[in-house]
Specification:
heterotrimer; A mainly alpha (about 400); B alpha/beta (about 190); C alpha/beta (about 200); A: about 400 residues; mainly alpha; Cytochrome-c3 Hydrogenase, chain B; three-stranded antiparallel β-sheet; 17 helices; 8 strands; about 50% helix; about 10% strand; B: about 190 residues; alpha/beta; Beta Polymerase, domain 2; four-stranded mixed β-sheet; two-stranded parallel sheet; elongated
Chain lengths: ~400, ~190, ~200
């Protein structure tokens, strides 16, 4: 750990260490601030306090095993991590366009549920940083409902690992539709409730409007993506511009704004939650029609044989054993797959050398790029705006440090 | 599977059928000598070109500012290590165009001589988004970027030795103790 | 001064295992709630007070921190167990919940935070990563926080449910309550919570 040797510079400015243990840095981010009174004159971020070596770890696991590691990169949105990894694998195995429709619909619905769950955490903690405790409790109330749905389908609240190469690990249970319908019914009114607490709250507006402005050019210069980019006036959404999982067939709007300040990012994410509810509703209707349709590709190179076959046929048993012990083997090549995670463009870049383990797996974390601009945004601002800026960029240290 | 070198298509333009307009890949190959399309399977169908390290900064700058498709967003910069190749350290840049939604992948590979770090010109001065990713590649692969404004380790501790994502760096697994007898007191 | 009877029951129900803290017999100093007269030793009273007013440190590392937030939020409401006062400063807290994976870069910081906490202090290792680095057995992570700080309760799970963490907290409360409060070093025998 680099320590700040001095507490004052020669010109009398104060050096302040913020983090890695600080309630408002949303994890273990460390900022070294140089202050002149209340004003921040310089900010140097320091990351790596959560460096987990996931990319190295993936190189030592086969394609099925590495999936479990991807859940924990961006731990607020495990489903979208899974999805980008799985999509890259599917491209590598040349089955990207053969995934059954029911699996695609469930993938979209789970992605959007995850987006709402992640935005609820962002909203709760962001409001908490700015002094509003109630929103935090309200947000967790609805998040628990989403986690119950996740638990219902997979048995785990957060790290579901529900995707598989070529589809899903299992079909969704029968009561999934009812739980989702209940969630879709209540959620728009709950979002109204959050907005009544914050959108016209004078304290909140004073602390967010005109704070941490990022222009369109700045956003493109620093590789922004996701809600932050859209709040800066660039209408870019991976779901629309580079559609995957048949997102182009869903009817939804891309929320965007011109202002580029903290309040704009808040408004964009609130609208995004409403759009996500719409997508989930459409997905639920499609799922009804596709009842009983296959949820996984039947490709002997990749997917496991059916359980009944394993019990009755020797070949299937050997096949299953080979797939479990050795794993699927792709041709040498590279594939890059991007999805729109709650924070932006989350992508996986897999390079294969033709063995059963990936040669290199790179995860493009949107927070990693989004955070770069922070030091330029908060330099020149007030100390109190630092937490507002960090909160509004919505960083997850897990995917920054990986 | 293996992409054909499109340089043939770029130069043979005088046949009876009107030639297709040159793609950005062709223009890069024409403009920067030594660039070529690697014979490698790109399963995501993204156009890929490999540029010599001394041209990488001009190539990225050209693609961003002057190319017919303005690639105005730097999506990703990542490294990889292929110990069996002649130029084992590879840096991949992925660019995106907001107007046409096109993407292009630019690759750049260098060899390491002896114990020295391989060197690639940095693009952080012309595109600020590349700052931290290049630091990460420096940290993880030991690729040195010349003219980088702030080339320090980013993820590992400052006194860390080695570059974790190189293939000769061990994973560092420790054997798992599944059972320890309470009476053994070990 | 009344004490929930379930507290005594739960403590004496704790499973027999090596290292588990055994409660002392009730007649060594207990409350007789029926007559309205309290008879106890100072040691026991202090233990009771400490156990029911744990101030955890607001210190999240990774995924488990989200479930730790869930534990303190609306549905699971840890204030029912007197441990809702999350303090951001180590100097005001007496329980460190290590929630998440501990990288080698973070390890000196964690130890420093632990050293800044005033005695008596306890450590709850939350999740597989904190207990043994979980699925990440590699160069970057400390293979278990018990190599850095002494751990009182291990809660497995990836991440553990909020209920599991609350269970771990209750186990820790039993341990605190029956610890000898004065005149000796605090015991650091670990307690494991079943998943």
């Amino acid at each position: 750990m680099v320590m700040l040797e001095e507490t004052r510079t020669e010109s009398g400015r104060m050096l302040l260490n913020m983090g890695p243990q600080h309630p408002s840095t949303h994890g273990v981010l460390r900022l070294m601030l140089e202050l002149e009174g209340e004003n921040v004159t310089q900010c140097i971020p320091d990351m790596g306090y959560l460096h987990t070596g996931i990319e190295k770890m993936c190189e030592a696991r086969n394609y099925h095993q590495a999936l479990v590691l991807t859940d924990r990169i961006d731990y607020l949105a495990p489903i979208t991590n899974n999805l980008s990894y799985i999509m890259a694998c599917e491209k590598l195995f040349d089955v990207g366009d053969k995934v059954p429709e029911r699996a695609q619909v469930v993938r979209v619905m789970l992605s959007e549920l995850t987006r709402i769950a992640s935005h609820l955490i962002w909203l709760g903690t962001h409001a908490l940083d700015l002094g509003a405790m109630t929103v935090f409790m309200y947000c967790w109330r609805e998040r628990e409902q989403i986690l119950d749905i996740m638990e219902n389908i997979s048995g785990v609240r957060m790290m579901t690992s529900f995707m598989r190469i070529g589809g899903l690990v299992a079909d969704v249970p029968d009561d999934f539709a009812g739980l989702v319908a209940e969630f879709v019914r209540i959620m728009p009114r709950k979002i109204d409730e959050y907005e009544t607490l914050l959108s016209r709250n004078p304290i909140f507006i004073d602390r967010t409007r005109g704070v941490g402005v990022i222009t369109r050019d700045g956003a493109l210069e620093y590789g922004f993506s996701g809600s932050c980019l859209r709040a800066s006036g660039v209408e870019f959404d991976v779901r629309v511009n580079l559609p995957y999982c048949a997102y182009e067939t869903y009817d939804f709007d891309v929320a965007w704004s011109k202002e580029g300040d903290v309040y704009a990012r808040y408004m964009v994410r609130m609208r995004e939650m409403r759009e996500s509810v719409r997508i989930i509703d459409q997905g639920a209707k499609r799922l009804l029609v596709l009842n009983g349709a296959p949820i996984r590709l039947d490709d002997p190179r990749i997917t496991f044989p059916k359980r009944e076959k394993i019990h009755s046929s020797m070949e299937s048993l050997i096949h299953h054993f080979k797939l479990v012990s050795e794993g699927p083997v792709p041709l040498p090549g590279e594939a890059y797959a991007a999805v729109e995670s709650p924070r932006g463009e989350q992508a996986t870049y897999i390079m294969s050398d033709g063995s059963n383990k990936p040669h290199r797996v790179r995860f493009r974390g949107p927070s990693f790029y989004n955070l770069q601009v922070l030091q330029h945004t908060i330099a020149g601002g007030l100390v109190a705006d630092v937490v507002a800026c960090i909160g509004s960029i919505d960083i997850v240290l897990g995917e920054i440090d990986r | 599977m293996v992409q054909q070198p499109p340089s043939e298509g770029a130069t043979q333009g005088d046949d009876e059928t009107p030639p297709p307009p040159p793609t950005d890949i062709d223009l890069v190959i024409e403009r920067f000598p030594g660039s070529f399309v690697p014979s490698w399977r790109y399963a995501d169908q993204m156009p890929t070109v490999r540029v010599l390290p001394e041209h990488i900064r001009e190539a990225i700058s050209w693609l961003r500012h002057e190319c017919q498709t303005r690639y105005d967003m730097l999506v990703d910069v990542g490294g990889s290590h292929w110990p069996d190749r002649d130029e084992p350290f590879e840096v991949t840049y992925i660019l995106h165009s907001m107007t046409t939604n096109a993407r292009i992948r630019v690759k750049c590979a260098v060899a390491a001589h002896g114990d020295e770090l391989p060197v690639i010109p940095s693009i952080a001065l012309i595109w600020a988004a590349a700052n931290w990713p290049e630091r990460e590649i420096y940290d993880m692969f030991g690729v040195e970027f010349t003219d980088h404004p702030d080339l320090r380790r980013i993820l590992t501790p400052n006194d860390w030795e080695g570059h974790p994502l190189r293939k000769d760096f061990p994973l560092g697994e420790e054997p798992v103790e599944f059972y320890r007898s309470a009476s053994a007191g070990a | 001064m009344t004490v929930p009877f379930s507290r005594w029951m739960r403590a004496s129900d704790s499973p027999e295992q090596p290292g588990a803290v055994r409660p002392q017999a009730l007649d060594a100093g207990g409350f007789s709630g029926a007559s309205g007269v309290a008879l106890t030793t100072v040691d026991r009273a202090v233990g009771w007070a400490r156990a029911n007013s744990i101030w955890p440190m607001l210190f999240g590392l990774a995924c488990c921190a989200i479930e730790m937030m869930a534990m303190s939020a609306a549905k699971h409401d840890v204030s029912r167990f007197g441990a809702e006062v999350f303090r951001s400063s180590p100097r005001q807290s007496d329980l460190m919940i290590v929630a998440g994976r501990l990288s080698k870069k973070m390890a000196p910081v964690l130890r420093r935070l632990y050293d800044q906490m005033p005695e008596p202090k306890w450590v709850l290792s939350m999740g597989a990563c904190a207990s043994c680095s979980g699925v990440y057995n590699n160069y970057a992570l400390v293979q278990g926080v018990d190599r850095i700080v002494p751990v009182d309760v291990y809660v497995p799970g990836c991440p553990p449910r909020p209920e599991a963490v609350i269970d771990g907290l209750i186990k820790l409360q039993a341990k605190i309550e029956y610890d000898k409060q004065f005149g000796k070093q605090f015991e650091r025998a670990p307690v494991t919570v079943k998943a």
